[in-house]
Write a structure and sequence with these properties.
heterodimer; A: alpha+beta; BirA Bifunctional Protein, domain 2; seven-stranded mixed sheet; 19 helices; B: alpha+beta; Phenylalanyl-tRNA Synthetase, Chain B, domain 1; Phenylalanyl-tRNA Synthetase, Chain B, domain 3; eleven-stranded mixed sheet; 31 strands; ATP binding (chain A); protein biosynthesis (chain A)
Chain lengths: 497, 712
Amino acid sequence: MADTGVLETLLRRIEKVDDGVDSLEVATSLGVDHQVLVGAVKSLQALGDLISAELRSSKHWELLGEGTEIAEQGSHEARVFGSIPPEGLGQSELMKLSFGKIGFSKAMSNKWIRVDKAHEGGPRIFRTVEDIEDQVREKLLLVQRGNSSKLEEKEKNELKKRKLLSEVTVKSYWITKGSSFSTTITKLETELTPEMIANGSWKEKKFKPYNFEAMGVAPDCGHMHPLMKVRTQFRQIFLEMGFTEMPTNNFIESSFWNFDSLFQPQQHPARDQHDTFFLSDPALAHGFPPDYLERVKKVHSEGGYGSQGYKYDWKVEEAQKNILRTHTTAVSARMLYKLAQQEKFTPVKYFSIDRVFRNETLDATHLAEFHQIEGVVADYGLTLGDLMGILHEFFTKLGITKLRFKPAYNPYTEPSMEVFSYHEGLKKWVELGNSGVFRPEMLLPMGLPEDVSVIAWGLSLERPTMIKYGINNIRELVGHKVNLQMVYDSPVCRLDS
Amino acid sequence: MPTVGVKRDLLFKALGRTYTDEEFDELCFEFGLELDEITSEKEIISREQGGSKASGASDVILYKIDVPANRYDLLCLEGLVRGLQVFKNKLEAPRYRRVAPVSGEPQKLIITKETAAVRPHAVAAVLRNITFTQERYDSFIELQDKLHQNVCRKRSLVAIGTHDLDTVSGPFTYTAKPPGDIRFKPLNQTKEYTAAQLMSLYKTDSHLKHFLHIIEDKPAYPVIYDSNGVVLSMPPIINGDHSKISLNTKNVFVECTATDLTKAKIVLDMMVTMFSEYCSQPFTVEEAEVVYPDGKTCKYPELAYRKEKLSSGFINRKVGINEPTEKIAQLLTKMCLRSEVTGVGDEIQVEIPPTRSDVIHACDIMEDAAMAYGFNNIPYTTPGTYTVANQFPLNKLTELLRQDLAAAGFTEALTFALCSKEDISDKLGKKISETRAVHIANPKTAEFQVARTTLLPGLLKTIAANRKMPLPLKLFEISDVVLKDETKDVGARNSRRFCAAYYNKSPGFEVIHGLLDRTMQLLAVKAARGDGYHIQASDDSTFFPGRCAEIFFRGKSVGRLGVLHPDVLGRFELAMPCSALEMDVEPFLGRTAETALAHEVAAAAAVHRPPPARPASTRTVFGDVSAPAGLRALDDFLADKSYVEGFEATQADAAVFDALPAAPGPALRHLARWYNHIESFRRERGGLPAAKGRFVLDAFEEHVDVDAFNKI
């Protein structure tokens, strides 16, 4: 709080006048810095409606250092002129003067002086006129005396450019009496205390008003990771739709369950070293269901179940190779196989959201591991229209209602459809994910009844999250390079709003 | 997905009309293609090599079209146009025919037995009286390239060679010879090289170097000669210069050598069906005869048309539409699958042309019908599949814990499951051999050498990347690590862990310890030895000596907490003290723990399960467990115990387990819990510690040693 002396003096000044006072004038007359007065105004404002203060700003021109020098001693060119005696002055002599160099050329261009280069003893400067008018100095003097309005804007800007003048903005308060004006200051209470409540003194006290413009104190709390918040929402959506969660806690998978069981041929490029992480230890899986293995081998190499097959030499060695699973569909395959081993088929709806791994080239939107969201429905007589209907329900829960389906290719689904939605912001159709009906060559060797269809779809968790939270570089979201501030600041996740 | 680049104006000319970019994009979408990019050669060069290089390049507009990976018939302008024209009902699908040569004698390709060891298969055909233009020629070369990249799997499965038939004379011999014995002038070279010299010449060729590995280490290389000893090609690397085709070539000899015969036939069919359009007799292909080492002969190309019968009801049912049989047949015909109604019920006979090798099952035909109908014209329906949703118990517990750990003031991190060996060993002061880590065979960088065996390095790296944030940093993660486990079909399993770290100016062991207490409170585990949890001093090279404790839950170690060793901090570039906690989550699943995991079930089905033998004796110290009274006594006994004896599974559990004639019902819930738990030791039960007491009695032993109860 400002010095009470200043506060009271200020209040008395205000009391004496009818309209109000200017803080700048009061400061000048009290001989204090303007900032002291500003502090006093703020303090008084904090005490209630003692005064009212209106912020004013005014602009005026002030001389800069060089401008002040010129106003006192004349412009450089005038001083050059003044320093040349009637008999002239050696150029080298002139240049020794502080203003010599800078004033010389201007004086020349004003035609006040001339140079006699042929003069004996070196070039010599002579006056060419009797008298000069030092306009620059006169203009600056006008400004110095507070008469800058007499100069034209162009002239002022010219001088400003020469760094002789500058325009300064002065802020001051116009202070008038407030609704509860008084010249005495009562100290305000900052907070309600238990004592005040106990003895009832709060009734008599005046309280300092709160500054509601300021931010509150941040609570000391933990935070959930945004990607996991989105995962929670997706889980919720699946659960709302009656889908059971699959146990996907097995990152290591055999090529058999990851590819072969899905009727993905052994020469498929996805099974290249470039796309998939293979394991060196433990390198091989064992213990595939022997009958099922035979059926898988047959459907690949010879066909069957109404299929031509791929007609190649299927090798169990290839199927045994352990990998980091490239999709959670490997787990779906295990689940469907398990379902087929039941005595009687029962319809199921399954989902999972978990990590998958690709030996890909990394960039701003691709990492070697990401989360796959997957939904699977198995029942008698499901149609492509059913798949579209379920996708429509699913995406409606995400706030996406306008869908479009594009025919696509996938080794284990037929038909396969890419799902697009219309993005209002980008004004175009964007791909959301993939979907399809599992091939009979995948389902029948498992032992599922022939008239059971299995429909499925998948999408990544990272992409919708990056869009939701406006993140451009995936490394800021996933992995140890995460920006924790972003984690601290991220709002709750409501996918449908 | 392969991308095919075609000149827009040429495409429109062939399609007989022009489209706006939007219209063409729409057409592609409907047909399952994607107009990926609209560009020009100039634009491509200037993007890839800089503007100055592009000055002379053509600015003819190119459409880059993404084609589904199984549609080899759409990999060139000719095929694309044919597919789209038939789709738009502007053209009837052509009929491809294999014809005998006018001369009567077909070209022969004789395969010798030497090829068996390197590249055993070959097929061939002749395009007779073909007329090339510059554009057709370019497309012909481009298609070979696209096929090589896709169905041929970078020439490893199939390699195509095309030759000017008039420069060579049959019969041709496909053989294999030592690299030093093969000598010829390869395509676009001025002198002769031996095969060995060629291999080193092409080491630096940006295009060909990718194919060298296919035969490099073989003792003999494949080679095709004509009857005068002229080399046609050395597959899968390069053709001879002598027989190279030009714009003036009239007769083309096409050969495909392969390691996969099915694919070779498909590739040959593609080459000849696409370009026979330009023969004097369009869509006819002259046959060639392939003679096998055993003397058997075969005529190629196969150009097989396969007939399938299916019902329109099947298609309607699978797609979810209701179209008359006639209409379904029309839809299929639009997709180059010529179809007719047979008149028998709702039966349709579908003819699959040689260009559609992707159609291998009725479901492929069904998809084509759906595409022709228009995916976006199919009405949405909601299946009536009634199911009750269940959460995976481990994930359910994880979700609940995460909520409350965040409420306890810790912030969730999300770190990678893959990391370097160093992260999980050296940096933590451990040996890699002690970690039970699974190792990745083909990591591109050190960041992907192993799957993590601990969550701690991820959290420490997260702290290191956020050192500028205000202290303290309080992080946690609940996620899976991967450990080798021989009892699993893949030899490894995930293990769910909870890890937390506190990083501040003082180590804050009490904060991490407090978090452990809070976590146990959340898990409804009381602080007590025996049935609850407790911690006791332990040694661990990751932690500061004397500042590490092991966490015990029901007598079993489930994790550790403590102040990290300064060396560990240093290796993670951390300057402040840090305390941390890492523990298993799965032991806290309680009743749901025994829920069989699906991937185990599938694997378990494979394991030969011996028929359950009748227990030798059902008489135990608890009474006869084949009678309800005995079972109840055992259930009571297990009400407050995890094991029959002590705090871990022993042979005593195994013995009592075997004595039970059947799995107990759910009414005996303590017994059922114990039974399921002991059953999970099935594979490793041989390794369980020996029993101290005797719990199962001989079948006819009279005396029951009641003291056995009191000893426990």
